Amino acid sequence: MSRRLKGLAPTGAVVVGLVLLVAIIGPFLAPYAADAIDVSRQLEPPSGDHWLGTDENGADVLTQLILGTRVAVIVGVSTVSVCLFVGVLLGSISGFVGGWVDEVIMRVTEILMAFPGILLAILVIFVTQEPSLLAVIGALSLTGWSGYARLVRGQVLLEREKDYVEAARALGFGPARIITKHVLPNVFGPVIVQATFGVAGAILAEASLSFLGLGPQGQPSWGALLDQGASYFLLTPHLAIFPGVAIMITVLGINFLGDGLRDALDPRSQET
After folding, report:
1. Beta bridge partners of 119
2. Residue 95, helix vs strand vs coil
3. Counting beta carbons within 10 angstroms of the beta carbon of residue 163, is it exposed (0 to 12), middle (13 to 18) or buried (19 or more)?
4. How far, in Å, CA of 3 to CA of 25, rounded?
5. Which helix (H) or strand (E) holds 239?
6. Could you report the per-residue pLDDT of 161-194, keeping only the tens digit for each?
7. Is residue 117 within 8 Å of 144, Cβ to Cβ?
8. How far apart are CA 150 and CA 110, in angstroms?
């Protein structure tokens, strides 16, 4: 069984590592302060003073990109963390307990999966009229957990019929201990892979919300820069190109890493 990352996965791991590093130390890397603007230098192309140009307020685009990395990472990781907690909890209960509990949880899951997640997130933020970082995470998590719940349920249904679960029952272990100590460790492989792709999806969703003006307010965001770039694309295309490239590289890096994890954790993969 192969446990090494192959193909483009190492490249993806490097990209993800760099993105996390920029998110952590971004304020120390940014050439200008977050609130530094110069209205006399609006929409300037890349230059020696501003390597990636300036936006419509005269703010440095490179600074906005660096600081926006933290917003993207926080939304991506936090959303997936919430979805994982809820999805793993409900999915494991549904698959292990079965019966009417399983029916109720799965029907709720199917209802939520029927709604386009981004549209429901837009509705939630619009109704609450609170486009904050916490609101974006909550809105994206509202339906995001359902996919994890369905995946975990399916894996638990397979595991609960195996001999080691029967042995644990014979020893008198309760359902909670069997699930947490025996079943869940054997189902985390597919869950980790899905969570990796989920981070990329959450970053794209946050950028989409910010592009529509529903992202975190008062904080630099890649989606907000794209929104400006769309308005001034013919005049200053750099304003849309650079955040677009940042999103593309980040999402591709996460997807490459996810593909590698999927292959490494697949029990059917063999050494070649």
Report:
1. none
2. helix
3. exposed
4. 31
5. helix 238-265
6. 888 888 888 888 888 888 888 888 888 888 999 9
7. yes
8. 9
Structural tokens at position 145: 């957990």
Q: Rounded to an integer, what distance in angstroms lies between the CA atom of residue 189 and that of residue 169?
A: 24
Amino acid type, 42: Q
Specify which residues 54 forms β-bridges with. Answer: 60
Helix, coil or strand: residue 6: coil
Cβ partners under 8 Å of residue 82, min gap 6: 137, 138, 141, 144, 145
Structure tokens at 139: 């809105």
Specify whether the CB–CB gap between 151 and 91 falls below 8 A. Answer: yes
> By CB neighbour count within 10 A (0-12 exposed, 13-18 middle, 19+ buried), where does 235 fall?
exposed
Asked if residues 11 and 253 have their Cβ atoms less than 8 Å apart, the reply is: yes
- For 54, phi then psi, to 5°, come to -125, 160
How far apart CA 234 and CA 43 sit, in angstroms, is 12
22-29: long-range pairs with CB below 8 Å, 24+: 22/66, 22/69, 22/70, 23/69, 23/70, 23/72, 23/73, 23/74, 24/70, 26/66, 26/67, 26/69, 26/70, 27/67, 29/66
Q: Give the model confidence (pLDDT) of 120-169 as tens digits.
A: 888 888 887 777 889 899 999 999 999 999 999 999 998 888 888 888 88
d(CA 51, CA 12): 25
Domains belonging to the chain, first-starting first, are 50-265 (1.10.3720.10)
Residue 80: what are its φ and ψ, rounded to 5°? -65, -35
The answer to whether the pTM exceeds 0.70 is yes
For the record, the structure tokens of 122 come out as: 């837009």
- Write out the E strands in the chain: none
CA distances in angstroms from 248 to 77, 140, 207, 223, 266, listed in the order given: 17, 20, 11, 12, 27
